[in-house]
Amino acid sequence: MSFPYPLVIFDLDGTLVDSAPDIAEAVNRTLTDWKLRTFDLAQITNWIGEGSRQLITYAMRAAGSDADIDAVMPGFLKHYGDTALDGQLYPGVADTLAALHGQGVRLAVCTNKPEQFVRPLLEARGVLGLFDGIVGGDTLPQRKPAPEPLWHLARQFGVEPGNSLMVGDSESDALAAHNAGVPLVLLRYGYRKQYDLDAAGAVAVLDTFPELLALR
């Protein structure tokens, strides 16, 4: 049987790529630049998912700084760019994406990471050519959990939102899917923070990425 959704939209960080160590390095380099305390990986991972500006805002405020975030962002984005290509695909991601692509499924990425960092990372991991569309956190005026990024991708491929699938790992992904009327699959291994995945109304909650191929 073929895959039941003609379009699958994937979150990036915590879904396709384990990028938390690299993001944490960029955050801590920025904090060091401002002569502030740094944080461990677990704490910084808990701040991931709402876009880079919110991430560094959480970090700066937690470190006791009230600095203007507009002044902080250029340095943070420089460090982010220096570390962004280091994230590794989770086990089974490349083969699963290739299998879906081989079935004629259109694949897209919808992430709150700035778009400038998305294509180079996917290219470095050898999977950029499998994706037909990319929406970053700054591609549109809205970003997840708003529905517009998912609607934008569905329109791009002429697919009704209800016939698309969102695959993610967090509350932001779940809310975006629900707001857009898009069916949802969640992955347990990502950056879910304290979010209850099993109560999120997903079509499925999976332990590993290759289990996606068994959806019917």
From TrEMBL:
Keywords: Carbohydrate metabolism, Hydrolase, Magnesium, Metal-binding. NCBIfam families: HAD-SF-IA-v1, HAD-SF-IA-v3, PGP_bact. It comes from the Bacteria. The gene is gph. This is Phosphoglycolate phosphatase. Mg(2+) binds at D11, D13, D169. InterPro entries: HAD-like_hydrolase_sf, HAD-like_sf, HAD-SF_hydro_IA, HAD_2, HAD_sf, PGP-like_dom2, PGPase_prok. It comes from Pseudoxanthomonas winnipegensis. It catalyses: 2-phosphoglycolate + H2O = glycolate + phosphate. The active site is at D11. The keyword DNA damage does not apply.
